[in-house]
Each structure stands twice: as C-alpha cells, then as structure tokens.
Write a structure and sequence with these properties.
Layout (H helix, E strand, L loop, with lengths): L10 H5 L16 E2 L5 E2 L14 H27 L1 E8 L6 E2 L1 H7 L8 E11 L5 E13 L5 E14 L5 E10 L14
Parallel strand pairs: 3-8
Antiparallel strand pairs: 1-2, 3-4, 5-6, 6-7, 7-8
Helix pairs in contact: 2-3
Length: about 190
C-alpha cells in the first residue's frame, strides 16, 4: 500500500513575497473521519491565530480545504486530480515524482484503507495573485497487516498556481516527517 506523505519545503517561501495584509476570518469547514470512526475537527484559521491574513491567503486556505475534502472522500484518485500536468511531488525519503500522470500512478490508495488528512496553518499569496502556498500539518492513517492502527504525521507545503483557464492547481506538493521533540535534535546515539 502506498503511504503518501506531504513535505515541508523552505525555498518556496522565497519565491512568494510582497503580500498584502489585513485581518479576515477563514474557517476550514470540513471534518475528517478517521478509520476508527472518530471525527477530528480542523483548527480554524482566524485573526486570533493569524491577524495578518490577506484575501489571497484566505482564498488559498479555502482551496486547500476543498482539496482535503475531496481526498477524504475519494482517496488517491481525488488527490491526483488537483495537480497541474507538470506538477512535482517531493515525499520524505522518496524519489521526485514528475507530472500528473506519474503522481496519479503513485496515488492509488482507497480512502477506506488509508486516510490522508491535513490542516493548513498558514498561507501566502504572491503579489500577482496567481501563485501562492499553504503549509501545515498532515496525518496518514491506516492499519497494518494485524489490524493495528498506524499513523504517520508531518509537515507539508502545497504550492498553488492559477492556470490560464482560471482554475487553481497544485504545482508542487512536498512533505517531511514531524521534527524531533524539543531536546532530541542533539542527543548522541547510545551504542
């Protein structure tokens, strides 16, 4: 079973700048349901958590929410449908995947067997309002061969681009494992 992860990519931040800022409220309306039937509500993004949200950031967060809702319902097939033809995915510890067709071939999970959910924690829109990014936390839930729950988690960034027809597509999706707990980064391994 393919376990997709979303990845954090720092250089993308440098590509997008000159954001406008004004307070606005954006709620991520969907709730994700895990394999064990428990419902998890995403944390709302609001002026209380980010008082500098621009209209563009809210638009990207809304896109990300629709993306997550589609994937919760449709699994890997729905995931691949959000990508541009020339998109790239960078999954932690995996080779680069180039192009929507290759991404679709890798994203072949059924949402009954594997659930990928994520919550955006921030977004920025470029000054031209045709490219931006969202970032946040993801979780992948499945069961091992013994029926035991398995959860993977990490950070992600999604880079969005407005296509010539006006539709928004994912042009890069990247993920990384959760960072180590505080104090664990510099521990010397024990023999």
């Amino acid at each position: 079973m393919y376990k997709l992860q979303k990845i954090m990519l720092f250089p993308a931040c440098a590509l997008l700048c000159a954001m406008t800022a004004r307070p606005m409220l954006a709620q991520i309306p969907s709730a994700q349901t895990s394999l064990d039937g428990l419902t998890q509500k995403p944390t709302p993004v609001s002026p209380l958590t980010n008082p500098m949200l621009s209209d563009g950031a809210i638009q990207l967060i809304e896109l990300e929410s629709k993306f997550a809702q589609d994937v919760a319902k449709g699994g890997g097939k729905a995931f691949a449908n959000w990508f541009a033809d020339d998109a790239v995915t960078l999954n932690n510890g995996q080779p680069v995947v180039h192009g929507k067709l290759a991404i679709a071939a890798k994203a072949n999970w059924d949402p009954k067997e594997y659930q990928l959910s994520w919550t955006p924690e921030g977004a920025q829109m470029g000054s031209s309002n045709d490219m931006g990014f969202t970032w946040g936390h993801y979780e992948g839930r499945s069961k091992d061969k013994n029926g035991q729950a398995v959860t993977i988690a990490g950070r992600y960034i999604t880079i969005w681009k407005k296509m010539p027809d006006g539709e928004w597509k994912v042009v890069m999706d990247a993920s990384a494992n959760e960072p180590p707990a505080a104090g664990e980064c510099c521990v010397v391994p024990k023999p």
